[in-house]
TrEMBL record:
This is GH84 domain-containing protein. One of its GO terms (molecular function) is beta-N-acetylglucosaminidase activity. Residues 7-333 form the GH84 domain. One of its GO terms (biological process) is glycoprotein metabolic process. Transmembrane segments: none annotated. It holds the Pfam family NAGidase. The lineage of its organism: Eukaryota, Metazoa, Chordata, Craniata, Vertebrata. It comes from Oncorhynchus mykiss (Rainbow trout).
Length: 677
């Protein structure tokens, strides 16, 4: 051990969560050799015979795996410490249990292991009746067993004992006055080492590849043997980048999933049934989009509205720093997370500076708000790029460790960015922006949960509670308020959806805007401030339109929108189908009953192309609109669709929408779904 065995320094594998594989442990041994560590303690919770089934011996196959680990650790100059946790159900006074404990450790000893640990952490302090009669205290019982096992193994050079009170927060009444620790200190044999933690336990779950960065920051010192945290972090991040970018091992297959393998999510009009079968092809859409009338000129990035168009590349050091800052410590945020939370708080509290109702405010204050908003939006875009780079630029083993966390934060950042962009349009009254209606415990932890608490979603935190997709995608998405230049592309999108649902070409080629005018036109013309657009690297791929007050909106439609449509599609020149759609527009303006609008005064419509890979962005799109409606005082929202649209019904039901009495729909076959805000 090169003289380093007196000071044990290494890794304890004893966490809960997704276990490490045997191959990962071998990689860990290589890292430890590189960092000049000397000890590995084996105690993973997926090894049932380490804790739950500690009485059972290992099978021949398990013996082979354990022996391989022991040999591999010795090749790397490491001391392999085998640990056993019998404390959950051992009878300390039972000679049978003691014999089984000895049999188990004898088996491991024959595999070549020369160092052991007996762990009594995370167990109850109580003794059974037989033990209460044999021992004066819980500590005496543990020490008695530990001493006997130590002698039985021939007093090995390394024998560790983990007490039940292994950290300061578990000591009663304190570390210095704990009767339990006093007994352990007095009665435990001198050569047995006691394992303790700090005042608290940081994590109960450890992601394998993140361990690389954590340990490297602790073992890095400069030439003068001084520890510099910033230098240690920079060195760790640089080395970690190389480790993250390792190519796939031979035999691994990279699966590419096209967006066509997921289904359409679109709340089309109730009398338009849609095809939700697995169909559309992402490549076909890309070909159509690049050949249609909205194609941009050569050399121009296809990014209407500012979608972040970057070439996929491995993770950069700045992205790794962002990742570290966003997932810093269990109870402390890093610089990037702190900035994100501070900016969102300030922008929300001072949104009146850019409100249309505050025209008398000083212009420099509005510029200050917009400048700070630009910085916040920039960080949100960096998070989106980080998500893309994690998916495309790291090995698959690392990807599935990091992806749930990065994906969750990406989705929260999408909604937060859309909310700030919407505030910047100056359409908020500011009435519902401050305060959180829900108890803090309903939100998840970390920076993602704290960002959600700052959004005006009220008691709707479940909008963010959905699992990540099975097939990660590196595609970049953006959610933003609607702009007038989006109208043509949105009209084209709903026309494609209509054709796909009916399985026939456009029945009104002379009037290409007809479907768009019916489905989207009223909202885009009369209340564009509640229209959100979803776009990816190819362009617009979804939208959600909202009406904050259905009663007043219906009146405006009758006085403003319908006369314009009658002029646009006059009977003397109109096509038969256009006159039919115009008649349907008239029927659309029928009033909803007061019993519905009393609880659900707002309405929405959601459309998305069928080739979205990550369906969670559609949930984010809907959440962004609900946030805007809630911010301006709405307490309920509804949408209408066909009862045969089972996929859309299921999609909205999972987001908290409930079916309302079907007789309250304007169309006889229509179904109304609503949810409170």
């Amino acid at each position: 051990m090169d003289g380093r065995s007196e000071f044990l320094c290494g890794v304890v594998e004893g966490f809960y969560g997704r276990p490490w594989s045997m191959e990962q442990r071998k990689v860990l041994f290589q890292w430890m050799q590189r960092w000049e560590l000397n000890t590995y303690l084996y105690g993973p919770k997926d090894d049932l015979k380490h804790r739950l089934l500690w009485r059972e011996v290992y099978s021949p196959e398990e013996e082979g795996q354990l022996h391989t680990l022991i040999v591999e650790s010795e090749k790397r100059g490491l001391r392999f410490v085998y640990s056993l946790s019998p404390g959950q159900d051992i009878v300390f006074s039972s000679s049978c249990d003691l014999s089984l404990l000895k049999r188990k450790l004898r088996q491991v000893s024959k595999l070549g292991c020369q160092a052991f640990a007996i762990l009594f952490d995370d167990i109850d302090h109580s003794l059974c009746q037989a033990d209460s009669q044999a021992f004066s205290s819980f500590a005496h019982a543990q020490v008695s067993v530990a001493n006997e096992i130590y002698r039985f193994l021939g007093e090995p050079p390394v024998f560790l004992f983990c007490p039940t009170e292994y950290c300061g927060s578990l000591c009663s009444p304190s570390v210095s006055k704990s009767p339990y620790l006093m007994t352990v200190g007095e009665d435990l044999l001198v050569c047995v080492c006691v394992c303790v933690s700090n005042n608290d336990v940081c994590v109960s779950e450890c992601v394998f590849f993140i361990l690389f960065c954590v340990f490297l920051t602790m073992v890095c010192v400069d030439e003068e043997h001084q520890y510099c945290p910033e230098m240690a972090l920079s060195t760790a991040l640089h080395d970690w980048m190389e480790e993250l970018s390792q190519p796939l091992q031979p035999g691994c297959v990279c699966v590419v999933l096209k967006r066509s393998q997921l289904s359409l999510i679109s709340t089309v009009h109730p009398d338009v049934d849609s095809d939700l079968s697995e169909g559309g092809d992402g490549e076909e859409r890309e070909k159509k989009l690049h050949n249609n009338q909205f194609q941009q000129g050569p050399g121009q990035p296809r990014s209407p509205g500012g979608v972040l168009c970057v070439e996929k590349a491995p993770l950069s050091e700045s992205q790794i720093r962002l990742l570290v800052g966003l997932h810093y410590l269990p109870h402390e945020h890093g610089p990037s997370a702190q900035r994100l939370l501070q900016d969102l708080t300030w922008l929300k509290e001072h949104c009146h500076l850019v409100s249309a109702n505050d025209k008398k405010g000083p212009p420099q204050k509005a510029e200050e708000w917009r400048g700070r908003a630009a910085g916040f939006l920039g960080v949100c875009e960096e998070i989106a790029a980080l998500h893309s780079s994690v998916v495309s630029g790291v090995s698959k083993a690392v990807l599935y460790d990091l992806y749930p966390y990065v994906w969750d934060l990406r989705n929260t950042a999408l909604v937060a960015k859309a909310f700030i962009c919407w505030l910047g349009c100056g359409t908020t009254t500011g009435a519902e922006l401050l305060g959180v209606e829900s108890e803090p415990w309903v939100f998840k932890g970390g920076v993602s949960g704290e960002l959600q608490m700052l959004l005006p979603i009220g008691s709707n935190s479940e909008l963010f509670s959905h699992p990540p997709p099975l097939f990660p995608t590196s595609r970049l998405y953006n959610i933003r308020p609607y702009h007038n230049k989006d109208k043509a592309e949105l009209y084209c999108m709903v026309r494609q959806l209509q054709q796909g649902a009916q399985g026939s070409p456009d029945s009104s080629p002379a009037h290409p805007d007809l479907i768009g005018d019916r489905c989207l036109g009223p909202c885009l013309a009369l209340c564009p401030e509640y229209s959100m657009v979803l776009e990816d690297e190819l362009g617009v791929c979804g939208c959600v339109l909202g009406v904050v007050d259905v009663r007043s909106f219906a009146k405006r439609c009758q006085t403003c929108w319908m006369p314009a449509m009658r002029d646009k599609y006059p009977p003397r020149t109109g096509h038969a189908n256009s006159q039919e759609v115009l008649q349907q527009m008239e029927e659309d303006q029928g009033e909803y009953p007061d019993s519905l609008l009393y609880h659900f005064p707002s309405q929405l419509r959601l459309d998305a192309l069928p080739d979205l890979v990550d369906i969670s962005v559609t949930r984010c799109l809907l959440t962004a609109l609900l946030t805007a409606l809630k911010a301006n005082g709405s307490h309920g929202v509804f949408c209408e669709m066909q009862p045969t649209d089972r996929m859309r019904l299921d999609f909205l039901t999972k987001l908290g929408f409930l079916e309302i009495i079907r007789g309250e729909a304007r169309h006889r076959e229509g179904v109304v779904l609503g949810r409170l805000l």
